């Protein structure tokens, strides 16, 4: 029995040995006037379920931590925590690990200084993405074929909508990356958490210039609908004779219900968008399908009309054949293995 007890103690020691924080010091970057709420999660790597987290006295009444998850929450406005330094303590049985945390608050409109270069860099990247590989043979490689299929006629509103969306999104992402990399020089790669709200990161003048980039381009070309045509146009127009452009490619959509946003960064991100701190819980797609969608075809094994080919053709028609606006920089992912 003593031998068994000794073995269990040894296994417990091995299990906790080497459980450490990913970095000796972390930085949490906040924009000016950042509100109370979640500011990231810092935990021991591969931490056992019994791990308990706490904060040093310096963070008292300013920041709190969930003792089980390591989720940090700001209890005051960001102005009161600029350059705040404290420690996170993780305990499991007899083992104790510590790491330092430094909260930095950026000055108002800190991102303005990077916006012009970021927009130009994004535009250059888009121009590069539009170029197909040289040589006829290159058309038949995946990268060349992908770029060829993404070509849209010059002046087509779809191209303008797609490009405007990409410029705005990538510019904001690039400025975020520049700021994070700036602090990673001092704290190390992967040790910087940034919570940047656009309306405090950029001035109204810069935001206005970004808004101009994202202005929807509506075609003014009149649509002619053939009354005797058996089929409607493949781009979605003419399905409604009274409003022929409604539902067509390149036509802005109007919501019947207000959108539900979870907006910690001022970007109007929908609920469920990646990398949101403390997001509301959402049911999984499987749960939604199981509880709310009734599939009356699933039990039919001899159906000769509704096949997987029908579904694939619907996807082809809806996205590829109708030239739905989408990001044209997908070729950058082709080198990932």
Automatic annotation (TrEMBL):
It is found in: Secreted. Keywords: Glycoprotein, Secreted. One of its GO terms (cellular component) is extracellular region. SUPFAM superfamilies: Heme-dependent peroxidases (SSF48113). Pfam families: An_peroxidase. One of its GO terms (biological process) is response to oxidative stress. It comes from the Eukaryota. Its main location: secreted. Coiled coil: none annotated. Gene3D superfamilies: Haem peroxidase domain superfamily, animal type. GO terms for molecular function: heme binding; peroxidase activity. This is Peroxidasin homolog isoform X2. The lineage of its organism: Eukaryota, Metazoa, Cnidaria, Anthozoa, Octocorallia.
């Amino acid at each position: 029995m003593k031998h068994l007890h000794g073995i269990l103690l040894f296994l417990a020691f091995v299990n906790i040995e080497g459980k450490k924080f990913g970095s000796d010091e972390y930085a949490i970057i906040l924009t000016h006037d950042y509100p109370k709420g979640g500011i990231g999660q810092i935990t021991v790597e591969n931490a056992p379920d019994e791990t308990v987290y706490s904060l040093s006295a310096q963070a008292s009444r300013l920041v709190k931590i969930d003792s089980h998850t390591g989720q940090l929450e700001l209890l005051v406005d960001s102005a009161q925590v600029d350059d705040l330094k404290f420690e996170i303590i993780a305990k499991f049985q007899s083992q104790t690990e510590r790491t330092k945390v430094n909260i930095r608050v950026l000055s108002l409109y800190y991102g303005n200084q990077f916006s012009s270069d970021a927009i130009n860099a994004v535009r250059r990247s888009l121009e590069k993405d539009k170029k197909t590989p040289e040589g006829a043979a290159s058309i038949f490689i995946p990268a060349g074929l992908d770029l060829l299929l993404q070509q849209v006629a010059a002046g087509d509103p779809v191209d303008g909508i797609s490009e405007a969306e990409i410029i705005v999104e990538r510019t904001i992402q690039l400025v975020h990356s520049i700021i994070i990399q700036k602090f990673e020089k001092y704290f190390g790669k992967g040790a910087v958490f940034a919570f940047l709200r656009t309306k405090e990161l950029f001035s109204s003048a810069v935001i206005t210039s970004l808004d101009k980039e994202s202005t929807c381009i509506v075609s003014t070309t009149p649509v002619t609908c053939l009354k005797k045509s058996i089929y409607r146009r493949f781009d979605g127009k003419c399905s409604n004779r009274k409003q022929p452009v409604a539902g067509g490619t390149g036509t802005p959509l109007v919501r019947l219900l207000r959108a539900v946003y979870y907006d910690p960064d001022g970007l109007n991100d929908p609920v469920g968008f990646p990398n949101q701190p403390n997001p509301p819980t959402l049911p999984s797609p499987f749960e939604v399908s199981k509880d709310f969608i009734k599939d009356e075809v699933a039990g039919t094994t001899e159906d000769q009309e509704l096949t997987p080919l029908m579904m694939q053709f619907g996807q082809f028609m809806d996205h590829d054949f109708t030239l739905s606006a989408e990001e044209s920089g997908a070729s950058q992912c082709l080198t990932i293995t």
